[in-house]
Design goal:
With 289 residues, the protein is mainly beta. The protein has 1 helix and 23 strands. The protein has one domain (2-288): Beta-galactosidase, Chain A, domain 5. A hairpin with a 6-residue loop joins strand 18 and strand 19 (226-229). The relative contact order is 0.20. InterPro entries: Aldose_1/G6P_1-epimerase (IPR008183), Gal_mutarotase_sf_dom (IPR011013), GH-type_carb-bd (IPR014718), LacX (IPR037481). Keywords: Calcium. This is Aldose epimerase. One of its GO terms (molecular function) is carbohydrate binding.
Length: 289
């Protein structure tokens, strides 16, 4: 485990998966991260790379060859190297190797850089194509925040508030983890989503084409919550395990396969393309209060 801190907050990150496991606001002594109970959901904040969500039959096709990848890819289970570490910043690095090339035929460098500034944590995800051909990939985040957050509050005392008024449906997920083609109304000319455990009885809320790039966790019962900025991420997932005491805010550059996918990686919805020697960076930031 590695720690970064400043005068206001402290973060703990595991080199396995470069996974954020704890985020404490020193003034209120609250840890905002889910504690990772394995009986419920044993993760805290897994990184999603080189795919987001589930592939049809856990497989995809590239250059006529069939490859197999598990849900959300392999990065969350890999040991990252520490490339840089100071008091308030740490950078983790994962490079392609023989194991990754067997399931993802591209050479790459994948970095996660955690930086503290006052009461905020910024997480930059960088992908570099170190190969000689076009690289196709998805990347995303999956941080789980403890809910209820403050003592004396309940799950339904909290809401998510977006920075734009939204009219957007959710895209249901099939039993096989694929995106179905008939969206269901969710947000109707509003910027607020009241939280309840019933929301997640049928898996994640998958949102596309939102105007918002900021979502805030708020409550009428406590002043404590957070602001979550996710510019440049075209998809957003909101999820909790059934009846679990957390909520995941998941910004994605990529999405699970649709039920009618042709499984061609280069034609996959939301896929990112990276020329040789080029890099791709997206940053999400959480501000605690």
């Amino acid at each position: 485990m590695f720690t970064i801190e400043n005068t206001q907050i402290k973060a703990v990150i595991n080199a396995k998966g470069a996974e954020l496991t704890s985020l404490v606001h020193k003034e209120n002594q609250l840890d905002y991260m889910w504690h990772g109970d394995p009986a419920v959901w044993g993760k805290h904040s897994p990184v999603l790379f080189p795919i987001v969500g589930t592939l049809k039959n856990n497989t995809y096709i590239h250059n006529g060859q069939l490859y197999q990848l598990p849900r959300h890819g392999f990065a969350r289970d890999k040991q990252f190297a520490v490339e840089e570490h100071s008091a308030d910043t740490i950078t983790f690095l994962l490079r392609s190797d023989a194991d990754t090339l067997a399931v993802f035929p591209f050479t790459f460098e994948f970095r996660l850089r955690y930086t503290l500034f006052e009461n905020s944590l910024a997480v930059a995800c960088e992908v570099v194509n170190t190969g000689r051909e076009m690289m196709y990939f998805s990347v995303g985040a999956h941080p789980a925040f403890k809910l209820p957050l403050a003592p004396g509050t309940g799950y339904t005392d909290y809401y998510l508030q977006f920075n734009q008024t939204e009219t957007t449906p959710r895209w249901p997920i099939s039993a096989d983890g694929l995106i179905e083609q008939s969206p269901i109304p969710l947000l109707e000319n509003t910027n607020r989503l009241n939280l309840s455990k019933d929301l997640f009885q049928k898996d994640a809320l998958v949102l596309k084409s939102m105007a918002s790039t900021i979502v805030t966790l708020g409550s009428n019962k406590t002043p404590h919550g957070f602001r979550f900025d996710y510019p440049g991420f075209p998809f957003l997932g909101i999820w909790a395990a059934k009846n679990a005491d957390f909520v995941c805010i998941e910004p994605w550059c990529g999405i699970a396969d649709s039920v009618n996918t042709n499984q061609q990686l280069s034609e996959k919805e939301g896929i990112n393309k990276l020329e040789p020697e080029e890099s791709f960076t997206r940053t999400w930031t959480v501000t605690l209060y």
